[in-house]
Records
---
Amino acid sequence: MKPPTVKEVAQQAGVSVATVSRVLNGSTAVDGELRQRVMAAAEQLRYRPNRLARNLRTKSTKTIAIVVPDIENPFFVSVTRGLEEVAFREGYTVLVCNTDDDPQRESVYLQVLLDEAVAGIVVCATDERRSSAQVLKIMEQGVAMVGLDRRLENAPVDGVLSDNFGGTRTAVAYLIEQGHRRIGLIAGPPKYAPARERRMGYEQALLDHGIAVDPALIKVTNFKGPEAAVATEELFTAGDPPTALFLSSGNVAIGSLRALHRLGLQVPADVSLIVFDDLEWADAYNPPLTVVSQNTRQLGGLAGDLLLRRIRGGTEPPQERHLATQLIVRGSVTRPRA
């Protein structure tokens, strides 16, 4: 049997082909009673839209994509969930692409998404400058773009980030208020905005309290657990180790905690610590970890809202939105030993 056509749906519903087309394409300019008749007729005839034909005709789809550096990272899992909730509510589906922070892999994915005529892309760039050039080319083809968590420098796109500077400044100030003066920082790579801003927040908190920044207490990592473990061991096997640590991400926290365990150091008896990000297991750790909480699902949802606004023709100037963070005090911080 041949599949039913739009014309047959229109005849079944007693409406015009144009009305059926508007209903099936999600238009809100159709009376509720007519909409119900069209949907009932489509269901009775088991009509399914020819997506391929529609894509060729409109040069776009009802699909958006998110390009992330690490699909296993709980941060990006939660962000993607927030984006998907917004997209699905508005009739869009979401593709997820994992780059492993490889610029070449990112470039391939972006080209594939352009070829597949996705309506828009949320991207956490592998290289804030290098990625911008390809983003500009994609935008010239009419594809909406939004930057997530990292900036797209020199590209006129909306961006969504957490308040990395303010959240870190508040957390480190709390450590200082508890009496700590030697505070270690396990930082991320400075080529990424979150790492730069968290280091700036750390340094500003020290300066706010008249404490000189000691480069020996700062270890730069790749935001991965194994490298964070090595950095932590270096801090605590050198002379005059810190009494507290600020860990700049969840992956960093996993590596650092493993290193502290191997060294026989107890939290918070031997070292206090705060983690940037409220990991799912943070309050189940013994002791429960003090964290800087960022609303990752809201980040994804806001990125989705901004992307859909651009897809629908929004022409307002690009904006960078910073979502507030919250210091959640638990049991991993205490006053240093005398």
Note: The chain has a mean pLDDT of 90.
---
Amino acid sequence: MTVPIFRLALSCGATGLVRWGQTLAAVGLALLANSCVHAKDLAQPPDTLLAGRQEAGRSPGTGSRFCAQGIPGRMPVSLLDAVGRALCSDPRTRQAWAYIQTQQAQLNVDRAAYWPTLSANASVDRVDQRVTYTNLPGLESSLRTRSTDVGLTLSWVLYDFGLRAANLEHSRQLLNAAIASRNETLQTVFLDTVRVYYDAQTRLTLLRADRETERIAHESFVIAQAKFKAGAATLADKLQAKTAYSQAVLERMQAQSDLDKAMGALAVEMGLAPGVSLHLPSVDDDGVHQDDYRKTVDTLVGEAMHTNPSVLAARAKLEAARAEARSARSQSLPRLSLMASMDRSDTPITQVTSRQVINNRSIGLQLTIPIVDVGSHYQISKADAEVDARKADLAQARRTVSLDVWKSYEEFTSGLATLETANDLLHSARQSVKVAFGRYKAGVGSLLELLRAQSDLTNAERQRVLALTQWKTGQFKLAASLGQLERGGLPRAR
């Protein structure tokens, strides 16, 4: 229940009303200035993580120059192109942007509470009034005229002990949380695309390796068959060579099927039909196994606490809960408002019985103090409980991010060692095949030696490709766990 303690009202002319308004306007404008602080916290339209800057007034998929249209041509699709298309077409990015717009609108609603409200009313009536007295006919009267009423009412809250400021801060922090969640969504889409892209690249490279294995197996079979006809090899050698060749053909066919499925998944991730033909470069190793993230784990975790979107979102939601708690407490505090009205009534039949024009002007201050409001106590308890919950969410987010950084760092560093070992293994396997092939062709080596060398080469090629793609993916995973995918481009990758 709210009780107006006092209201100062006075009759004055138009000049007096203007003077009152000018005097109190300075107070109101000072309050309005408070609603515009922290303008830097307001959301801007989302960037695409690829631009290195913001595209004003555009959201992903709404005409950004980074959103390619149509089906890619014959040129190989780079990782940058795939990520750009995915960010522009994925429904999750559009949903995150829409949520930011919703919070931006709510922030504007709370800012509007600092402005005065001005309402106008007007009415026009046709009056036909007749008054008769049974015993006093001389006092009878009649009125036929038009009744009009026009008025303006001004209401301006001047001071409310922080209620509007708390509501504004609550909306601002929710907007910051929405922006952080948007960044987390973009990084999720980013990483999903990286994984699918590298999977397709891996399948493509493995297919090429299986084709090379099939070619070598076929050549070995041809040599074994020729040696068998010349009596220099046994039937067992010929059959073993034939079996190895057939096995290589089957593995190549399976690799082709795996590649087709991976390419379909990549097309869908890019917002295309799964049957669209895409062209990818094979996985290449530039020989540069370095990165800007070679720091101690403690330093990386410390960076993540200030840059990871999930931590930023949890922190913003905690600040929003604290602002909501302040708002709940401010509900039970007094409120001071400026009240002003102007009214002109032409023959109001509820007040007069003859033609009259009545002009009213008033301006005053109204102090409202809540006396009894049982629900406010429970609102405060609810808000305090929400603050505790958000503190727990922030602590959990920090723990999760710390673990993610640790795992990503370990995967990245171990991936470097694995890649170096896989490269050495591949180099040795290639030399072994050359030696075994030359020895068998010269008649001093056995077929089993050649087949074993071919099998070792196939396994080495697979391990090298998998190690390379896992290391490249690990770069992005580490960047994402640090919250740095949006900081000016991609980690070093081919």
Note: The chain has a mean pLDDT of 77.
